[in-house]
Design goal:
Shape: elongated
Helix content: 10-25%
Number of helices: 7
Radius of gyration: 30 Å
Number of strands: 27
Distance between the termini: 30 Å
Bound molecules: adenosine monophosphate, magnesium ion
Strand content: 25-35%
Structural class: alpha/beta
């Protein structure tokens, strides 16, 4: 890798990063109930059927469907009562069993009539209508058949995948270990919240935003704090970071100014690729390696830092975490704004969604962090495209980018 300043499209930069990503190899076993956001390392194969036996989908009466009069009512002697968790006796032809949701279907029965269609009498039930064979029966293995693969390796656990793993009896699941991400923040002007702000200084908002983004991805974060705009301390912290982490992420110091030392430090300690991505906000993006660690240098402007994280660092980190799927779902929505002058760059605009129409925050500056706090997501406008109100645009909800 050699430093370069080529202008890449968003897709080229994303594809390059994904191709470089190397999933962690360490696997650990964790409690299924703690697996939220973790990535499954091995396919999960069912050793049981779900449901494990034919059971009733309703509170009602188990019958033999052929015993029911297709033209009218049928009175059947009520011979047993089967509650969930208990097994009934074989149902004799011409009789019915009271049965409850989740209870095992007795052999001999082939349908359940819901109780709303029946009238209970002393020792009998009057069934008001005929039902087809199989009515209200949940079949053995209809959800999951024994031997089938229920979750593929590389799946990220949402609550529903956790539930599926539990449904096949797994108290623990094998997942990739958490990714270790070291972060530091460059700038002589950067001050931690809680400290007094001298003239010329600005609070470090990127740290807090980034810690939130990384927490949502389930990363273990090593926070190395603020580094001044000088080469020696930048090199020192970079080496410290690379020695402990899978990925080092920084903000600031990667523009073309002579006070930007991150690039120089990475180039000196490892290998650096610098890009200008043809997008707004957040043109400069640095990628490289220092020792065994990957390096990602985000721009310093708070909106640029967050958006480049979401678009580039997030898929890269997910892939390093072992996840297969990394792309956010996007929505086609109608523009509630005019964009008369086509931009040469891909634009990611802070936008709010209302009734399938998106409107833009009035101040789209790359330092206006309140625009991101106001927004529900980003409108992605392709290069060289003007938009008139009502035309379709692509919307990326933050729910797809944060976590
Ligand atoms: P840089 O990329 O270092 O040239 O920084 C670009 C702009 O982002 C400058 O106005 C910086 O003051 C600002 N900035 C850089 N780092 C941070 C940070 N951690 N928090 C808030 N603003 C920052
Ligand atoms: Mg700076």
């Amino acid at each position: 890798m050699s430093p370069n300043t080529s202008l890449l499209t968003v897709e080229q930069a994303q594809a390059f990063l994904l191709a470089q990503a190397r999933p962690v190899s360490d696997i650990e076993s964790i409690e299924t109930s703690s697996a939220l956001g973790r990535v499954l390392a091995v396919p999960l194969c069912a050793t049981v059927n779900v449901p494990p036996l034919d059971n009733s989908a309703m509170d009602g009466y188990a019958v033999h469907a052929a015993d029911l009069n297709p033209a009218g009512e049928t009175r059947l002697p009520l011979v047993q009562r089967i509650i969930a968790g208990c097994l009934g006796q074989t149902l004799v032809r011409g009789t019915a069993a009271r049965i409850f949701t989740g209870a095992a279907i007795p052999s001999g029965a082939d349908a359940v009539v819901m109780q709303e269609h029946c009238t209970a009498e002393a020792g009998a039930v009057v069934v008001h209508r005929a039902v087809p064979k199989g009515e209200n029966i949940r079949r053995t293995g209809e959800d999951i058949a024994v031997g089938s693969t229920v979750l593929a390796a590389g799946v990220r656990f949402r609550p529903q995948e956790m539930g599926v793993a539990a449904s096949i009896g797994l108290a623990t699941v094998p997942v990739f270990r958490r990714l270790r991400v070291a972060v530091f923040f460059t700038g002589n002007e950067i001050v931690m919240p809680g400290q007094p702000l001298a003239e010329g200084q600005i609070y470090n908002s990127n740290r807090t935003t980034l810690l939130g983004l990384l927490a949502a991805l389930g990363a273990d974060v090593i926070d190395l704090g603020i580094v001044p705009d000088e080469l020696a301390p930048t090199v020192e912290v970079l080496r410290l970071a690379a020695a402990q982490a899978d990925v080092v992420i920084t903000s600031g110091g990667v523009s073309v100014g002579e006070e930007d030392y991150v690039k120089a430090a990475v180039a000196q300690q490892g290998a650096l690729t610098m890009w200008k991505v043809n997008m707004k906000p957040g043109k400069p993006l640095a990628f490289g390696r220092v020792g065994d660690a990957f390096f990602l240098g985000l721009p310093g402007n708070p909106v640029s830092a967050m958006i480049t994280f979401c678009l580039f660092a997030r898929p890269f980190l997910l892939r390093c975490q072992g996840a297969v799927a990394t792309a956010p779902l996007t929505l086609p929505v109608a523009a509630d704004f005019d964009w008369p002058k086509a931009s040469k760059r891909r634009e990611f605009l802070r936008a709010k969604l209302d009734q399938n129409m998106v409107s833009l925050y009035p101040h789209q500056g790359s330092g206006v962090l309140t625009s991101v706090a106001w927004a529900d997501g980003l409108v992605e406008l392709r290069e060289h495209v003007a938009i008139a109100r009502g035309q379709p645009v692509t919307f990326i909800p933050f729910s797809e980018l944060l976590g």
